[in-house]
Design goal:
CATH architecture: 3-Layer(aba) Sandwich
CATH topology: Rossmann fold
Radius of gyration: 17 Å
Number of domains: 1
Helix content: 10-25%
Oligomer: single chain
Mean pLDDT: 92
Number of strands: 9
Shape: globular
Order of helices and strands: EHEHEEEHEEEE
Bound molecules: inosinic acid, magnesium ion
Strand order of the largest sheet: 4-3-2-5-6-7
Distance between the termini: 8 Å
CATH class: Alpha Beta
């Protein structure tokens, strides 16, 4: 049973504390500021998980960047391995000749980003790069070229800092592993 008042009670372990996340974003924000000095980027957040990291990352980029969002989902249930992805919400911006930086929370199989990259490249951006806060390399099915990477993590399901389990826990400030009882109601 989950107590509404205590999300931390469901947490088994803090994998990456918020101070470590913020330090990493300051560092990467500095790299982005240098790399895009002549060409301020359009940051494209992948809904909904990347909302939190996008908000913190952009405040560490000292350039007049813009933001936009895309929402995508795997086709049907249990087809996360098919790589067939559907656009639920498209960009508002025309990205032709823009310098686009995709902002993703986590790369698991890599299929979502592989699809997204292909879909956005077809619109002929001036450049297209990827930022991902987390990656689980052991789970990879498709390789994607990630330019800015926060942290490599082991093959564990994580929540917090934007990442959810069943829609919840996105507002935890740290990246956490849940107690096993939380899954499956045991
Ligand atoms: P991929 O297509 O398998 O790379 O899927 C990546 C997406 O799966 C991420 O954007 C997340 O929405 C979700 N995901 C993968 N691993 C986790 C996790 O450990 N916690 C929460 N969401 C995850
Ligand atoms: Mg996602």
């Amino acid at each position: 049973m989950r107590e509404m008042s205590s999300m931390m009670g469901d947490v088994k372990e803090v994998l990456i504390p918020s101070e470590e996340i913020q330090a990493k974003l300051r560092e990467i924000g500095g790299f982005i500021t240098e790399d895009y000095r002549e060409n301020p980027p359009l940051l494209v957040g992948v809904l909904r998980g990347a909302v939190v990291v996008l908000g913190d990352l952009m405040r560490n980029v000292d350039l007049p960047c813009e933001i936009d969002f895309m929402d995508i989902s795997s086709y049907g249930a249990g087809t996360s391995s098919s790589g067939v992805v559907r656009i639920l919400k498209d960009l508002e911006e025309d990205i032709t000749d823009r310098h686009v930086l995709i902002v993703e929370d986590i790369i698991d199989s890599g299929l979502t980003l592989s699809y997204l990259t292909r879909a956005l490249l077809a619109r002929k951006p001036a450049s297209l790069e990827i930022f991902a806060l987390l990656t689980k390399p052991s789970r990879r099915k498709v390789e994607t070229r990630v330019k800015y990477l926060g942290f490599e993590i082991p093959d564990e399901f994580v929540v917090g800092y934007g990442l959810d389990y069943g829609g919840a826990y996105r507002n935890l400030p740290d990246i956490c592993v849940l107690r096993p009882e939380v899954f499956g109601g045991g």
